[in-house]
Amino acid sequence: MSKLEFAPLVRRIELPDMVAYAGATWDWHRLHYDPAYLAARGLDRPVVDGQVFGAYLAIALRGWLGPDSVLTDLSFRFRSLVFAGETIRCRGELRSVQDGVADVDLRVEVVEDGRLAVAPASARLRLPHE
Amino acid sequence: MTPALAARVGEEAVYTAPEPLGRASIRYFALATGDSDPAHLAGDVAPPTLVCETNQYADRPRDADGFAGHRWDLDVPGARLVRGGNTYRFHSPAGPDDVITARWRLDDIAERTNGAGKRMLIVTSLATYTNQDGRLLATNEEALIYVEA
């Protein structure tokens, strides 16, 4: 039986989005905005803060499984950097539902070239009682 | 792996916020991530991963990279640092009145070789987040990777 795949959450991440996230998390690392710092490391664009993918996945999961579902576990591994101006796609497949608990397999892809930004990743949610 | 690095395993660092999380912090995080949950946008309930962001009360000086959050300051010459990943467990949602304490423990430092034959040090830490009543909010196992340059 094939797994249920949810409609992806797609986000284009512009520099102002990154500045807003850096402000909200007090993360002032130069990797996220400083052209000279980036150039010295062979990078031509600011690097998206990886932790934001956790926030995006949490938003996607709530959309897929409903506002009354409760996220209890979220795990992810970073595979490649994502840069300012790129678009990401959060994908999810329902692996199982048992005793009111849903397990979801996740990944984050970069739309422009299909590379994996985050994988493997997974989540567990407690579902509302019927 | 050096004996000095190995001796660091088991270290702890504890940071307690000087004030409650607050509605503004919650709303700002929700706006920054495009979160449409009304409870997040109202500042009533923190989005789950916000509780794991603790730079604002680590009370550390900015380093040369501009980073002012928790770090172990491990001495790994000739290596670049990359993030490996996170495993979050959310036990109880945080709200605007919660004063959060983050307790970090350096759990493990392991030497590996990557697919390109470069040596790596994988540093695993566990952060535990509680509020002023000792209520467990979340845990966060984080992997940082030092890769031979």
From TrEMBL, chain A:
Coiled-coil blocks = none
Q: Which residues form the signal peptide?
A: none
Instruction: Tell me which InterPro entries the record gives.
Output: HotDog_dom_sf (IPR029069), MaoC-like_dom (IPR002539)
Question: Could you name the domain of life of the organism this protein comes from?
Answer: Bacteria
Q: Which family does it belong to?
A: Belongs to the enoyl-CoA hydratase/isomerase family.
**What organism is recorded for this protein?**
Paractinoplanes atraurantiacus
State the name under which the record lists this protein: Acyl dehydratase
Q: Which residues form the MaoC-like domain?
A: 16-108
TrEMBL record, chain B:
- Entry superkingdom: Bacteria
Q: Which SUPFAM superfamilies match?
A: Thioesterase/thiol ester dehydrase-isomerase
Stretches assigned to coiled coil: none
**InterPro entries xref list:** FAS1-like_DH_region (IPR039569), HotDog_dom_sf (IPR029069)
Name it.
Acyl dehydratase
Q: Which positions fall inside the FAS1-like dehydratase domain?
A: 10-139
From the broadest rank down, the organism's phylogenetic lineage runs: Bacteria, Bacillati, Actinomycetota, Actinomycetes, Micromonosporales
Q: Which organism is it from?
A: Paractinoplanes atraurantiacus
